[in-house]
Specification:
The protein is mostly helical. The protein has helices at residues 3-26, 34-57, 61-84. The protein is globular, with a radius of gyration of 15 Å. The termini are far apart.
């Protein structure tokens, strides 16, 4: 994997993490601590790496679509569990 792709994934992760950081400046309903930012950053970065791996290694477009969908659903499931404890 090229280092350029890792930097792109990290840049997108930072952009996504800016959303709650900016929201915390305008409302009291968003209350994230440093551990929340670290955990979500790790989750976003790992999901990005998994998707990058799938794109590089899987040849079939249908299988890419399925595997990326599964990776995205696992990301959402972990995120929901950490946020509200659905399980």
């Amino acid at each position: 994997m090229k280092y350029k792709n890792i930097f792109i994934i990290a840049f997108i992760m930072v952009l996504i993490l800016l959303i709650p950081l900016i929201a915390m400046q305008f409302t009291n309903e968003v209350k994230w601590g440093s551990e929340d930012f670290i955990l979500m950053g790790l989750l976003l970065f790992l999901t990005g790496l998994i998707i990058e791996f799938i794109i590089k290694r899987v040849n079939s477009n249908l299988l890419k679509f399925i595997y990326i969908g599964i990776a995205f659903l696992l990301f959402l499931l972990i995120w929901l569990e950490l946020a509200v404890g659905i399980i």
